[in-house]
Amino acid sequence: MLLNRSVCPYDCPDACGLLVQVEDGKAVRVKGDPEHPFTRGTLCPKMAHYEKTVHSSQRILTPLRRSGPKGSGEFHPISWDEAIEDIKAKWTDIIARYGAEAILPYSYAGTMGLVQRNAGHPFFYSLGASRLERTLCAPAKGYGWEAVMGHTLAPHPKEIAQSDLVILWGLHALATNIHAMHDVDAAKKRGAKVWLIDTYETPTAKVADQTFIVRPGSDGALALGMMHVIVRDNLIDQAFIDRYVQGYPELKEHVLPEYTPEAVSSITGIKPLIIEEMARLYAAAKAPFIRLGSGLSRYGNGAMTVRTITCLPALVGAWNKPGGGLLASISTGSAIDAGFVTREDFQQKVTRSININQLGHALNGVNDPPVMSLYVYASNPASVAPDQNMVIKGLEREDLFTVVHERFMTDSARYADIILPATTSLEHSDIYRSYGHYAVQRAYPVISPVGESKPNWEVFCLLAKAMGIDHTFFDQSADALIDQALAHPSDWLAQTDVAALQQGKPVELPLAKDYKTLYRTPSGKIEILNPREEECLPKFSKPYGDDAAYWLINAPDVRLLNSSFNERDDLFKTDKMLLMMNPGDAVQEGIETGEMVIAHNERGSVEFKLKCSEKVPPGIVVTEGVWWIKHAPGARSINALTAQRLTDKAKGSTFYDAKVNIKKAAHSREAEERQA
Ligand SMILES: Nc1nc2c(c(=O)[nH]1)N[C@H]1C(S)=C(S)[C@@H](COP(=O)(O)OP(=O)(O)OC[C@H]3O[C@@H](n4cnc5c(=O)[nH]c(N)nc54)[C@H](O)[C@@H]3O)O[C@H]1N2
Ligand SMILES: Nc1nc2c(c(=O)[nH]1)N[C@H]1C(S)=C(S)[C@@H](COP(=O)(O)OP(=O)(O)OC[C@H]3O[C@@H](n4cnc5c(=O)[nH]c(N)nc54)[C@H](O)[C@@H]3O)O[C@H]1N2
Ligand code: SF4
Ligand SMILES: [Mo]
Questions:
Q1: 20 to 30 A from 49, CA-CA: which of 20, 107, 127, 464?
Q2: Taking all residues of the chain, what is their mean pLDDT, rounded to a whole number?
Q3: Which secondary-structure segment (H or E) carries 273?
């Protein structure tokens, strides 16, 4: 039986190694690679049957041209030559009339491979199109970490196994970082305690010894309250602070008067005595480890929240103990820089930049030049971008020429003028880094392209030819690009077994013995006080909120990855779009489990089925997953309720920073369909 190595391409910190069994040119079985240092032979429920995605009957197999009204989903097949010719004709006309900046690429993380993910960059730079500011995920998290730690290497996730107090802070690990559970379990076996800090009792609460429920957007205050107690009761590691920390005296002056447990309790909703206890246990732990999620950074105060939490380990000297520290995200860009694909040097001039979170404004607002064409690849903005009503209003514009390169008929593809069929990761080559561990891996195709589908890189090579971009760069294969990058490895990558990497095996980037105390900041210390920030010290500021009754938490669903896997009917044996609410709140609203309800705010209305649950505290409602509209009971899905507002720093998304009111649904699409 031949098992082929591959890599999971999805936007997940685990970046798993795969073993794929191929029979008669088809992938028939997928397993986790036991030799992958983080995967350790297991897969999540989504990828355990990746073959059902790859060979799904819903795959788009040929290029398609729209034959009905925008959004109707009516298309007919055309050839690749016709599709490329259509795009060339439209773009040539748009460029003549408005200039190339009227063309906007829209891509995000459908695939994480460096070549296919970034394949559009050299093309759109050469064309002179608008640039897209890709801050959809959690740039505020990166900003907050860097404000304290600079470019310090993040701790290896295996440190968790040696910790005696693991804090999953705003991380739904069972859904989004499942392989970290190998290390969490190992720590538990050695007697470690596990805490979860979240806004509701997620399924991850089952693996925690204690769950602490905070009000949305208030974690910065909780961290400051813990610091208050640690400083007040002298639970600090003075020797560590003297040697490695900048700004402790200033912090002390600042947290003592302002962030008393009482004051922090009124912000977070956590009782003062519990805050005292959390601080004492954190300081008493031998090697506390915080694994920080991203959700808490998607608020108007997100960067500051992350910056504040990042200060905690320094106070107790967690960094110089095996198993201690804080992992926000791992950056290995200096091992393999994406520049070998992106080629910023292809820009003739620096063109206008449009924020990925503000596609609604870009398509509907007054812009000079207006956006006249949208080219979507490896993303599904009609589902994943905030303010869905504005996005869809834009996509409905008759004068907007939309091309979508996709594997499935997503909400975005439905609005396309031209759809191009995309390969899955098993059908193309790439090289992968991870943001949750230190392994890198190269992948070769294990099956031929399904139908007439093509990889991103090949499509951009075709478009470059069509648009008269005469550069030999676009004559190369994806493998040739990777070969060249690996022929000149960075110092860091050169320390790995590059030959094994070439063969498609996972290799791990090495870390220096004392890497957890090598602080790559301007001062060489952990900068609790950062003189380059307008706020020199961490402080609490409020999220945006809305003028409505309930915070809306739209957490990850274990069966989906953002809007990917919506094609997998086999994963959805139970309800899709549920809205969970505290039973007391439901009584107040006069609604019950199983009823159809509408969550609404100034941006939109979305229908859900209600589920009352004690796991949700009063004052918030929770829904899990980003669903295609086709799976929604009403005409919109979750992002009709979220806002285009940006984070305090780094222009990030604020998906969780939204509030809604709730009412009973008068009639639902499901009910109408049942009647018909
Ligand atoms: N199954 C699955 N896996 C995924 C994804 C998915 O959609 N599904 N998405 C992938 C992507 S792109 C990413 S970026 C990662 C994200 O991985 P995570 O960081 O785990 O997920 P987030 O969506 O950021 O939110 C995690 C948790 O934050 C909580 N939360 C929200 N607001 C707050 C707050 O103010 N304070 C606290 N303490 N908690 C809060 C939510 O309730 C949720 O349980 O996961 C990746 N993996
Ligand atoms: N309400 C709400 N909205 C969210 C989030 C949330 O938690 N709540 N999470 C946000 C986060 S963290 C993120 S990172 C974004 C993610 O936003 P996206 O990166 O857009 O994620 P996906 O929904 O996975 O859509 C990716 C699409 O790419 C397609 N695709 C996969 N591989 C390829 C390929 O090789 N080529 C081409 N052309 N297409 C391919 C897939 O079929 C899929 O439809 O969503 C954000 N949106
Ligand atoms: S989605 Fe994440 S956990 Fe699942 S196989 Fe891919 S990388 Fe691993
Ligand atoms: Mo993300």
A1: 107
A2: 97
A3: helix 272-284
Q: Which atom of ligand 3 is nearest to the CA of 178?
A: 3
The answer to whether residues 181 and 40 touch, using CB atoms and an 8 Å cutoff, is: no
Please give the distance, rounded to the nearest whole angstrom, from the Cα atom of residue 176 to the centre of ligand 4.
Answer: 10
* Ligand 2 pocket test, candidate residues 59, 564, 608, most atoms within 8 A of CB: 564
Ligand 4 centre to CA of 15 (Å) is: 13
Regarding the beta carbon of 384 and ligand 2, being less than 6 Å apart is answered yes
Separation of alpha carbons 364 and 395, rounded Å:
9
pLDDT of residue 378: 98
Whether the model pTM is above 0.85? yes
Give the whole-angstrom CA distance, residue 492 versus residue 665.
Answer: 57
Note the pLDDT of residue 2: 75
Atom index in ligand 1 nearest the CA of residue 558 equals 1
Counting ligand 1 atoms within 8 A of each CB, the residue from 174, 199, 200, 267 with the most, and so the one to mutate, is 199
Q: How confident is the model at residue 666 (pLDDT cuts 50, 70, 90)?
A: confident
- Spell out the residues 6+ positions from residue 582 whose beta carbon is closer than 8 angstroms to its own: 612, 613, 614, 616, 617, 618, 619, 620
User: Can you tell me which residue has the tokens 């380059």?
Assistant: 532
Instruction: Measure the CA–CA gap between 211 and 167, rounded to whole angstroms.
Output: 10
Beta bridge partners of 642: none
Instruction: Report the separation in Å between the CA atom of 116 and the middle of ligand 3, taken as the mean of its atom positions.
Output: 18
- Residue-level pLDDT at 575: 86
Model confidence over 237-247: pLDDT tens digits? Answer: 999 999 999 99
Confidence check: pLDDT of 672 > 70:
no
CATH top-level class of 140-328: alpha beta
Domain spans in the chain, listed from the N-terminal domain onward: 3-54, 64-137+334-508, 140-328, 550-675
Residue type, 215: R
Q: What angle do helix axes 456-466 and 120-127 make, rounded to 10 degrees?
A: 20
Residues 41, 213: Cα–Cα separation, whole Å: 33
Q: Tokens at residue 629, please?
A: 């509209």
Question: Whose Cα sits closest to atom 5 in ligand 1?
Answer: 561
Q: Quick one: which atom of ligand 3 is closest to the CA of 39?
A: 8
At the top level of CATH, which class does the domain 3-54 belong to? mainly beta
Write out the E strands in 313-422: 325-327, 353-355, 373-377, 401-406, 418-421
Q: What is the C-alpha separation between 525 and 248, in angstroms, rounded?
A: 11
Please report which helix (H) or strand (E) contains residue 606, including its range: strand 604-612
Amino acid identity, position 452: E
Given the candidates 2.40.40.20, 3.40.50.10680, 2.60.120.280, 1.20.120.530, the CATH classification of the domain at 550-675 is 2.40.40.20
* Residues with C-beta less than 6 Å from any ligand 1 atom: 11-12, 137-138, 169-172, 175-176, 197-200, 202, 214, 216-217, 219, 293-296, 553, 555-558, 560-562, 656
> Ligand 3 atom closest to Cα of 561?
1
| Sign of torsion over alpha carbons 622, 625, 629, 630 | negative
* Chain segment 534-551, per-residue pLDDT in tens: 999 999 999 999 999 999
Query: Which atom belonging to ligand 3 lies closest to the Cα atom of 46?
Result: 4
**Whether pLDDT at 623 is above 80:** yes
Mean pLDDT of all residues in 270-294: 98
Burial 585-600 (b: 16+ CB within 10 A, else e): bbeebebeeebbbbbb
